[in-house]
Design goal:
heterotetramer, A: about 575 residues, alpha/beta, Rossmann fold, eight-stranded mixed beta sheet, seven-stranded mixed beta sheet, 21 strands, about 40% helix, B: about 300 residues, about 30% helix, about 15% strand, globular, binds thiamine diphosphate, binds iron/sulfur cluster, binds magnesium ion
């Protein structure tokens, strides 16, 4: 019996492995397991090979896990295209389509070959049981039920839901294939005995991905306008809002490009609405100019960047955390804008609401830096108590403010009451050009300096937002892990493993990436002598930004690698142990 | 955000729309005339200034919102139309006017025009077409005639100009007109009609740049050569004839309404509002929004 | 007699003060003086107020200087709009149009009022002598000749040149006005006796601005394609090339926007030509995506960013050094690209040639980060010995490379031989998508990591380009100044003043801003305990980037302020002295 | 860079243009047919592959350069035309082909089309118009019919589609045609003619998306409904009639050449080369370039 099981499969685009993964996920989560599914495709968004991995646990799972417990290859060619995504270990049970023949040389050469390799005549079983090849993945699901204790009735219920509307025939076909898979498994027991432990006491959970929760949080926060242009892996946010937002008096505009998308969103904000745009790296690049306009015009705006591999078109279907520099620094002139990152699917809700609150409160663009993994992996989420959220609104001008109204009035906080078209007495000239308190254009260096100060000063309170950081572990620990976004869940597991091994380590997970909350880091780092900043990029961008703004302990290193393949907890643990072995000082 | 629509009605005067900011156009610039015509048109319509959102890009012409008492947004080069669409969708009760230059609208902003037109929001788009980049001091503009020598085409340009009238007609605009400050009553009337047209309305205004423009594009030449479409007996409901007439842009100075859709279709903002009203009953309580994801 | 004289004047757009400044500059430089002119306008590029200042010296001048020696106000309203640009001191001779009345309250309230204020009936003198108001500035030039020893025949020759083609009448009119000015000055001697010392022994000089030299250097380096879109203050580069490049078989394309401009330039580079685009901050923002494409497609490209005040439209006519973050960091994904900055008009030639060399050699986009002041101020430049420049060409594939050609072959240097359309055997797929050595798309994390490494590795030699840094002063000095771009000339004068006062200070001026040449800085900083990084931005962006990549001495601080008004040498000196006064340790 | 123009002539076969990279379009995708037609057209023309530069943006359709033996550039979304113009100006001897989807070309890239057309470089622009965003999985495209329900317009779109045929004609393109892989010989011929046309040539190819497209846009429907312009007796030199016919885009499936300028004007690249040749004698020695600034 195991409390944690990682299953993976690969096939060609048409095989439906992703859809099978979803059935699997639905099955286990309906039984009360914690679970998570990630999918992976070839270099093109549409077409080519595809794969998925599902991690199931009796305790919460924070990342997709390490090497697979069970791997299913529908053909070798496609399976081989996924290296690290579907990592094998000697302990993996490797199941493959029998007619594909034994594991090819190329796989064997990679090393770490499973000791238990099982050929199953999957196509044959499907044809015999279902009379059509199309039900292949139902056979696979049956094998997983039979061999690994995946709850059979959960899978069956999933099939019912999935094929209910597609006509009786299809459902029956697939049920027969499922049964054939189960029977094959029972008739051919494995050597390995990795059967899933019974589920924890049942508690209802949400099952969704990060993009789902981002869109829902936007509605929750009162977003009334979305302007955007499709781009992987962010499009689902627009798609969800395009279904829902009208009910709440809002609008989605699919614009002609990313510039028009953010332009329209900024216009809606100028007109007084909570407003949003979403994109990925290439679109962020195009939005740069108007993000600067939002900063100087002091207009609230939420900008979602679901990071994918870069540069340029890069790796559109894979995760990377290499847009942080762009989020923090890409603007001409001096600009400061908050950058937030969710660390898991569930966290995306909170971070998105926070982004709207910051935007409205500080009259500023706010970037949510999600990443493909957080955005598109589907996982079980503990129900969210929405009553503990407050929703902020922008500061409206009082009657006295409207006497000789100065839109950009210098106030103590740096935040000025903001009017909007339609409000009598509040007319002003919004502008991308530097302006005085009223909004009139100026070329004065002194006015410019004052306005720059105002725009920076108003964000100073962010320095003290401790609630935007998770800190775990003993406060006097000499070792540390810092990680963000989708890597944070890996760091968290590595941290727990290290603690279990007795290492004096602590963990910092920032949701606020920029501006750097100096006091929070200072306090955390006070005891730290060595540690790792774990992030999925070639340069280790957060580590570099921390260096820029803080005096870091000499032993705090960057632990980073280029995107596509997430870190594994054991990699981080090993690196941390190596660091600790060198010893403190 | 259903702001009640109010009107100053007969009480509004052009002065009500004139702000304290002093225009810094060159003396004699055509844009002064455009501004006056706009004041008059706004007064004739009579919406209070705070119910007007006036969006522009960057250019000499794009400074115009600052000289009015409306809510203005002097944004960035080429992006006035997308911003204006966001404003209008956010609050369809606003009277939204967009203005800018030929460079702003048809060069850097050219990609947005077709889409603004096909969406057909109730917007008024005024282009001060001076066939040159005024603000940046005399470079070639997309409407500059072929062969023109400018600072960026010292040996003469090699490309054909674009045709704003023909393009917007081909895009399907419901209201397309052309005017010049050389003929103020006509220009004022065109702006007023454009604002009153329920849908996307475009007025190409031949607004001379006295500093960098060509002789043939100055007030004097306009006065000598303008050909009111009315005097040609043009029927503005005839789209094909409008397309045909539009082809002489750059050769003839036609003024007046080229095309006005006699049966304006519903605007995008009206359709959006309709959809919002129809779906409002399906709205969930904020605390129930996450229920769709509950696995039971 | 003075060896250094700073003159300034302001008027409305039509007054022609800038043109008068140019005449002045031509006059003094033709006499062998070193000189420099800067101009300043209102918030709008076209229209509104304008001003200029001319600094003349018998020794080289590195910056526009501090408070004015003589100021001319054609009217107070416009003069007042220029605060720090036309700074007054008690020692300034303030000359104003008599009919404008005495200095207004607003000016007096600013403090530091000149003790010598001279009313001149400028308009009256003009009307009387020339019979038209239009020759006003010739009267002003006459006053400056008469009172400050500006060489009269130089000015006269300038008028001849300027009005030669405009008909006899105009020339005569202006000559009469000039004479009237001179006579007025001689008849009304000043209390102050700031007369310019005789010029140094005459040596021919170039008289031009940074944009002139950038365009000329591009031709010199072999640039054959320019694609761009007009934007202040960079447009002159396109304008010059549009006149000249055809002669050398090249083309200028005025594109429909900045994206098309860089797109076409990149296309030309793909086709094998040396290629360039130019813009300012807002245009840089728009070019971000295609700059990333150039990086991943490994195509040479030179991108000029003439910085102006930001964010957004900002202060389009004023200088600022706040686009460094954007230049260094704005890209999605991990990108490294060289950023160079010229420090003076003359330096622009060298830096531009270097940019083309780096681009071609390393197959990378290279950013030239000029700024409005360096780009648009006109100054005397020592003749440039072009024979000492080498011109680099991209690495062509050998015959054996073309056998089963791999465009992105991993080589020791990271640079791969590059083909171009037209070359038989060299066909490949250029792509913004991640690719393998051949250029075929990949989604493999391992391939991606290798390509990221390649793209970073190839730029490592830049770490050792000591020749891209000016280092002055004793190697063991405990105090330091670091400055770049147009501020470097100010820092240089402050450095010289400090040295003259006996301060143990050294100076580092980087032309290579990014990547940070760690060994060069390490060596320079070895002796440093305190110092200033002087730059014209709100955030002090270079200082922040240095922190990011180096362990800086604790006492090395940022000395920065928002743009529009350049630093004055005495400000930097004062700050440095304050630092030194606190003492070492 | 005057590469001598060579031809394979009669010896070239479609296979010469087919690369080792295996297309990963969905089985049945219209783009397979477009690729075959292109191979054939290229073989008929016979330029060696290395003298062809094939530029695209991003989309399913934009993958096409990689499947040929030409120099390809699979650039970024929407920017194929500007890049291609740079390539052509850098080396006018190259045969430059641009390809992409309806989204790539008319949505994000829409602002570049008018300018590419008016410059009139000798380029061939092939759009695989499938009325949907294929690569990103089924969103609304600018050519999607009004009212279409997609993942981004689940309640039906509210905007009119754009009209690629009418737009490019209004922009002044010298060659405008439409084809479909449902009729391979015709499509092949159109591509060949477009490439041979000396100037900007545009072919709108109705290329079905089997995965996200509508029933009415599939091969079967094309075969049933296509109306060859030749069979209508259309005279491709009649621009006004072409404009008129173009207006039925989205309603009728016209195939063939809508417009071909019978007197093609000189291309921009030819004018550029002419200018370069005329001015070459004025070239200064590299070491003398700075002399203009010398003050003596
Ligand atoms: C992104 C960007 N690119 C370029 C510019 C520079 N720029 C400002 S206005 C302008 C063109 C002005 O011409 P037009 O739109 O015709 O207006 P006009 O001044 O003639 O009224 C340009 C190129 C800018 N501000 N921003
Ligand atoms: C700047 C940018 N925005 C958006 C995308 C995402 N994207 C890639 S292709 C595409 C549209 C594809 O549609 P189309 O051009 O019609 O080509 P098709 O796949 O239908 O052939 C989009 C939105 C991107 N890659 N880059
Ligand atoms: S430059 Fe031309 S367009 Fe601009 S203000 Fe002057 S006259 Fe008007
Ligand atoms: S998604 Fe559509 S366009 Fe893309 S490959 Fe598949 S069928 Fe072709
Ligand atoms: Mg203009
Ligand atoms: Mg498409």
């Amino acid at each position: 019996m195991v409390v944690d099981l990682v299953l993976g499969m690969a096939g060609s685009g048409g095989d439906g492995v992703v859809s099978a993964g979803e059935s699997l996920l639905a099955a286990v989560s309906s039984h009360g397991y914690h679970a998570m599914m990630t999918k992976s495709f070839g270099p093109q968004i549409r077409g080519g090979e595809s794969s998925c991995r599902v991690r199931v646990g009796t305790v919460p799972v924070h990342n997709p896990g390490g090497a697979l417990d069970a791997a299913v290859a529908l053909n070798w060619e496609d399976f081989l295209k996924f290296g690290a995504e579907l990592e094998l270990a000697p302990t993996t049970v490797l199941i493959h389509e029998a007619k594909a023949g034994p594991p090819p040389e190329a796989l064997v050469r990679r090393g770490a070959m499973p000791t238990e390799v099982v050929a199953v005549p999957i196509t044959e079983l499907t044809n015999q049981s279902a009379g059509t090849e199309k039900a292949k993945t139902s056979v696979v699901l049956g094998l997983l039920c039979g061999w690994f204790g995946v709850p059979e009735d959960g899978v069956r219920r999933g099939l019912e839901k999935k094929f209910a509307k597609k006509g009786e025939g299809l459902l029956e076909t697939n049920e027969r294939a499922l049964k054939a898979g189960i029977e094959h498994a029972l008739a051919n027991p494995l050597r390995s005995t990795k059967r899933l432990a019974p589920p924890p006491t049942h508690s209802p959970k949400l099952l969704c991905d990060g993009n789902d929760l981002c869109a829902t949080a936007a509605l929750f926060a009162g977003c009334k306008f979305f302007g955007g242009y499709p781009i992987t892996p962010s499009t689902e946010v627009m798609q969800t809002l395009a279904k829902e937002i009208w009910k709440y008096g809002g609008t989605v505009l699919q614009a002609e490009d990313e510039i028009a998308g953010i332009g329209a969103a900024l216009g809606a904000s100028f007109a007084g609405l909570k407003s949003m745009t979403a994109t990925s790296g290439p679109g962020m690049a195009l939005k740069t100019e108007i993000m600067g306009l939002a900063s100087i015009a002091e207009l609230p705006l939420v900008i979602l960047d679901v990071q994918r591999g870069g540069p340029a078109t890069g790796l559109p279907t894979k995760s990377e955390q290499a847009d942080l520099f762009q989020a923090a620094f890409s603007a001409h002139g001096d600009v400061l804008r908050p950058v937030l990152a969710p660390i898991s699917v569930g966290d995306t809700f909170r971070v998105t609401v926070e982004a709207f609150n910051l935007a409205e409160h500080y009259q500023t663009p706010v970037i949510i830096l999600s990443d493909q993994e957080v955005a598109q992996r589907k996982e079980t989420v503990e129900p969210i108590d929405t009553s503990r959220f407050t929703i902020e609104e922008r500061l409206a001008p009082s009657a006295s403010d409207l006497v000789d109204y100065r839109r950009f009035r210098h106030t103590e906080s740096g935040v000025s009451p903001i009017s909007h078209p339609g409000l009598a007495g509040g007319s002003y000239l919004g502008a991308g050009i530097e302006h005085n308190e009223k909004g009139d254009p100026t070329a004065s260096g002194a006015e410019h300096a004052r306005m720059n100060e105002k725009r920076f000063k108003k964000l100073e309170p962010l320095q003290h937002r401790r609630d935007l950081f998770d800190v775990l572990g003993p406060s006097d620990a000499p070792f540390a892990l810092i990680s963000w976004g989708s890597s944070a869940g890996v760091a968290r597991e590595a941290f727990e493993l290290a603690r279990a091994k007795g290492l004096a380590v602590k963990l910092l997970i920032p949701r606020l990436l920029y501006p750097i909350a100096v006091p929070v880091y200072r306090e955390f780092l006070a005891s730290v002598e060595a540690g790792l900043v774990v992030e999925l990029s070639h340069q280790g961008q957060l580590h570099k930004i921390l260096r820029m703004q803080l005096d870091l302990p000499a032993g705090l290193r960057s632990f980073c690698h280029s995107g596509a393949t997430p870190f594994r907890p054991d990699q981080v643990l090993a690196e941390l142990e190596a660091l600790a072995a060198v010893g403190v000082k | 955000m259903d702001t009640a629509t109010t009107t100053c009605g007969a009480t509004a005067t052009p002065k009500d729309y004139s702000s304290a900011l002093k225009p810094i156009w060159c003396p004699g610039c055509g844009d002064y005339g455009v501004l006056q015509a706009l004041y008059r048109a706004l007064a004739a319509i009579g919406r209070p200034p705070h119910e007007i959102a006036f969006i522009s890009g960057i250019g000499c012409s794009s400074r115009i919102p600052g000289y009015t008492t409306a809510y203005g947004f002097n944004s960035v080069h080429g992006r006035a139309l997308p911003i204006a669409q966001g404003v209008k969708l956010a609050n369809p009760d606003l009277q939204v006017i967009v203005a800018g230059g030929d460079g702003d609208g048809f060069s850097i902003g050219g990609g947005h025009v077709a889409h603004a037109v096909r969406r057909n929001l109730d917007l008024t788009y005024l282009v001060m077409d001076n066939q040159v980049y005024g603000l940046t001091k005399g470079q070639l503009s997309p409407t500059s005639p072929k062969g023109l020598a400018t600072v960026t085409s010292p040996l003469g340009s090699l490309e054909e100009p674009i045709n704003p009238l023909l393009y917007t007609l081909a895009y399907g605009a419901g209201f397309v007109a052309q005017g010049t400050p050389a003929e103020m009553p006509g220009l004022t009337a065109l702006i007023e009609q454009a604002i009153r047209y329920p849908g996307f309305a475009f007025v190409n205004i031949q607004s001379p740049c006295v500093t960098f423009g060509q002789e043939e594009q100055q007030m004097r030449a306009h006065k000598a050569h303008l050909r009111p479409l009315a005097s040609l007996g043009h029927d503005p409901s005839d789209q094909l004839r409008a397309l045909d007439l539009a082809r002489s842009y750059g050769k003839e100075l036609h003024t007046g309404v080229l095309y006005r859709n006699p049966n304006p279709p519903p605007t995008y903002d009206a359709l959006v509002r309709e959809r919002q009203r129809a779906l409002a009953p399906e709205a969930k309580d904020r605390s129930r929004l996450l229920d769709v994801f509950l696995q039971k």
